[in-house]
Each structure stands twice: as structure tokens, then as C-alpha cells.
Write a structure and sequence with these properties.
Length: about 80
């Protein structure tokens, strides 16, 4: 069994993910931190209320790169 960090457990519970997907979402958030210059908690707060469509698409096609790019575009719009 995968040992999750506290943040990964929070992702798992908030977005109803598997252990593996929670770890993967944490890596996506880490990538987004670098690109958009926001803290992990800021990205998480945004994601809780702003990515319903992206999550639905991810569940259908499981395309993590497209998921990250779509969220990145939304976050960059906010930073302008």
C-alpha cells in the first residue's frame, strides 16, 4: 500500500481519488506551483471550486497532461 502524505490524503478525500491518483494530482500541483508561481494551498483552494469540468474530463479520458494544461491556463488568467 502506498504511504500518502497529509496533503495527498486531503486531495484523496476532497476529490474522491484513488491513492495513486492523489499522488499524481500532488505532482500536477507541484508542476503548477513552478509555472504559475502560486503556493500549494492557493492552487488547492482554487481547485476545490474551479475545476469540476476538468475533473469530469479526466475521469473519462485519464489524460493527466491535458488536465494540467487546462488548469494552468485557468490559473494564468487569474494572475494577469
Amino acid at each position: 500500500m502506498i504511504q500518502l502524505t497529509e496533503f495527498e490524503r486531503q486531495l484523496l478525500e476532497t476529490f474522491s481519488l484513488s491513492d495513486r491518483d492523489a499522488r499524481r494530482l500532488d505532482r500536477v500541483i507541484q508542476d503548477l506551483m513552478i509555472v504559475v508561481g502560486m503556493e500549494k494551498s492557493e492552487i488547492f483552494d482554487f481547485m476545490r471550486f474551479g475545476i469540476e469540468d476538468e475533473l469530469e474530463d479526466l475521469k473519462k479520458d485519464y489524460h493527466w497532461e491535458r488536465f494540467r494544461i487546462r488548469i494552468q491556463k485557468k490559473l494564468k488568467k487569474q494572475n494577469l
